[in-house]
Amino acid sequence: MREAQNDTVGAELPNTNYDVPSGVVLFGKYELKRLLGVGAFAKVYHATSVDTRQGVAVKAVSKSKVVNGGFAANVEREISIMRRLHHSNIVNLFEVLATKTKIYFVMEFAAGGELFHEVAGKGRLEEDAARFYFRQLISALKHCHSRGVFHRDLKLDNLLLDENGDLKVSDFGLSAVTGQIRSDGLLHTVCGTPAYVAPEILVKRGYDGAKVDLWSCGVVLFALTAGYLPFNDCNVTVLYRKIYRGQFRFPRWMSSDLRCLLSRLLDTNPETRITIHEIYQNTWFNAGENRYNPVRVKKTECVCAESQTGFSSLNAFDLISFSTGLDMSALFEDPNVSDSVERVVCAAEPENIIGRMEAVAEEGRVVVRREGNRGGAKLEGQDGNLIGIVEVYRLTEELVVVEMKRSEKGGECGAQFWKDKLRPLLLEFAGEREVPVSGDFCKI
């Protein structure tokens, strides 16, 4: 495990311009081809896998801009959210890599570009074509909501198309999860794109994340079939007034069934706004040559899969969560708290580590209580107080991460046991290969 030092292993992309330097290969795995877009603290590149030649999108995020701009929580949440979403109509996040100054998201590449350009090129879509995309959007949204994720920024710009013309929902940077819901059962962060924002967000009294997503879906569907947005004005105040009052007009070419559905989606009262369940029963939604068949959810490996030996395995997402370079739980921790956690990478079998730890603990009159067969153990002193918790995670076939969380109840006893007994034992296992996982690093 080491940080990248040169262009062929982990190139630091130049900040002077937006051109992609020829021959840049990130981490020896992804060859950059061209710039796709530039955001406030990130640039997105088209790249190809060196091994498979598969096209991917690489989002390079500047750590300094993220931290200084106060967006660290958004980036942390985006990665956390994309870990739990596996659907054929949602952009897949393959892995996360890092250097001292940048975080790289390696994602599924949507070769068809934004759905916005599809509409702009044709003016508007026929209802059958719009229904095709809308069905996929609702299927993706149902998957998100079932996993406690609310997108909160659904718009044509964030809906992409793959090489087969299928829709892909992207950009979860403003998404929320159920854990952010307050005691009143609502979300309160004001966010979203003006023309797509739901009226209840404007009054700043709290809102249901699922309901505001459905409002945005209504705006998307209207734009697909009308060729323009239902609420639009160069004056934001006037725009918000129209949204709050639900002032829009249907174009004459819209079918009556579509108008009925849009009226339910763009209902200014979230309590009576249509639900996803009701959408699946809707006449327009199920019209066409074939009734709608729900999209199957992708079956993928669990984020932290348990190996056959019972010890947990870490993937790229878990690796990055140990880094203090970006807040994947560690960057913004209170230093006084993070000092109570230490990690070491060892080239040893988990069972051997736990066994040796038990022997050392017995010599120091410390009780080791194993927790099932997951590679975890609690350490208790003679007085019965908890000294700490040790967890062993499988990193690769050869390496494991040993993490010890010291307890304040253990006092000097716990600190002394770690310093004089347990840590030397772990360093003995680690030998020349010790790596402090709490520092910045790139993927092995």
TrEMBL record:
Q: What is this protein called?
A: non-specific serine/threonine protein kinase
Residues noted as binding ATP in the record, renumbered to the chain: 59
Tell me its cofactors. Answer: Mn(2+)
Q: Which Pfam families match?
A: NAF, Pkinase
Q: Which GO terms describe its cellular component?
A: cytoplasm; nucleus
For this protein, the record's Gene3D superfamilies field holds: Kinase associated domain 1, KA1 (3.30.310.80), Phosphorylase Kinase, domain 1 (3.30.200.20), Transferase(Phosphotransferase) domain 1 (1.10.510.10)
* Gene Ontology molecular function, alphabetical: ATP binding; kinase binding; protein serine kinase activity; protein serine/threonine kinase activity
- What is this enzyme's EC? 2.7.11.1
